Amino acid sequence: MGITISQTSRFLATVALGAAVVAAETYYPPSEGASGWRRCRSDEEVQNNAGMDPQRLESVGRELSQIYKGPWQIVIIHRGYLVREWFGVPAMPATTFDVWSATKSATGIAYGLLLDDSRNRRLPKNTQIDLDSPAYNFVPEGRPLSDPRKEGIKLRHLLTMTSGIPGQSQGLLGIAVAPGGGEYELALGKQESRYGFSAAKLFAEPGKAWEYSDAAFAHLSLIFARAAGREIADYMKERVFDPVGIRNVGWDWQGGAGNIGPHTNAHSGLRLSARDFARLGYLMAHQGVWQGRQIVPKWWIELATQSSQSLNPDYGYTFWVNTNGRWPGVPKDAFAFSGFASNRCYIVPSLDLVVVRLGYDPPAWPEPALLAPVVSSIMQVPKP
Predict the structure, then answer these.
(1) pLDDT of residue 380
(2) Which residues on adjacent β-strands are paired with residue 270?
(3) What is the DSSP letter of 168?
(4) DSSP letters for 313-365
(5) What is the side-by-side strand order in the sheet with 270-272?
């Protein structure tokens, strides 16, 4: 059964009263190459240290293990404890997976840092960029524009999927280049996809329609490289991955070989284990702070993890959000990295909860299958 709004409100009020104490006692795990996450090694520790019902968790693991075959990982982190983890053969704890479009949210984190650097005049040549910056001011490769309306695309449109650049509903799924073609040429409307679809013409005015578009998102690689003078992958390694102990990580590049690029793939290709992905989620759950250091700007996390527009209130700035009740039975402050093949990193800050599921399939699965049952196993959450 789900949690009612009044019950969730009472619980969140209790959490708020103890926020200062929780902040003072926050645990941060060493890297996986050291001792890694602290763990609950018995049902008693699950109950006493993590405050969760071990029997409920076992039923979750048993059900998911029976349904989904092949390599996958699930990790549950509560109160800084690795409470439970399950694997599908032949995956192991250090196995990494391409998280597919969950990569977009990592790109979003990089943009939060970039915008904060601009605010504080830390970018090369004192470059200034904000959410209202015209996107093509930073994409000279896109000129002459394939559609004059592209002049109205702002950075915020790209980060919220409201640019008007064609995507899935318009037949442009992913970035399927023709032989010899380039990903960025396709994204900029200079070449058609291998299936004959084009991003040359906007299907809607910027800000007037929501469209899941990898072609639009690819612009963010070009903008970032020009504004920061660095690649997203390198920037994130130095500013985020290394400080939180993520060592076993890869990130694909795209382009080059006579075409524009190569640059970090902004929309896909980040490779992590579930344990390390949980570090990224844990960082976000704790307002971007790690061992007393503000890694990701708090203002950006607050902005990015709420509805960004009314066209699709389930989408923030690169994160999927629960502002409008996308995940029933889960607190409204929940948000997620989300990608193809059911790759997820769910974060519920009010519960100090991170739930990661990585794998190669299925292509899609019912969202309530994991997060809500895990939330219901937290014993402090009032039940109907």
Answers:
(1) 65
(2) 251
(3) G
(4) TTB-SSSEE-TT-SSTTS-TT-EEEEETTTEEEEEEGGGTEEEEEEES--S--
(5) 97-98, 270-272, 250-251
User: Does the predicted model carry a pTM greater than 0.85?
Assistant: yes
Per the CATH hierarchy, to which homologous superfamily does domain 103-230 belong?
A: DD-peptidase/beta-lactamase superfamily (3.40.710.10)
Q: How far apart are CA 156 and CA 161, in angstroms?
A: 8
Cα 135 to Cα 92: distance, rounded to the nearest angstrom: 42
At residue 83, the 3 state secondary structure works out as: strand
The domain 5-100+266-376 is placed in CATH, from the list 3.40.50.2000, 1.10.443.10, 3.40.710.10, 3.10.310.10, at 3.40.710.10
Q: Give mean pLDDT in consecutive 10-residue pieces for the chain, a chain of 384 residues.
A: 42 41 72 96 96 95 81 96 94 96 98 98 97 98 98 98 97 94 98 97 98 98 98 98 98 97 98 98 98 98 98 98 95 97 96 95 77 91 44
Question: Residues 6 or more apart from 240 whose CB is under 8 A from it?
Answer: 109, 110, 113, 246, 280, 283, 295, 296
**pLDDT confidence of residue 8:** 42
Return the DSSP state at 239: I
Question: Residue type for 90, please?
Answer: P
CB contact set of 106 (below 8 Å; sequence gap of 6+): 236, 270, 280, 337
Which amino acid makes up residue 319?
F
Residues forming a β-bridge with 344 = 338, 357
CA 32 to chain centre: 21
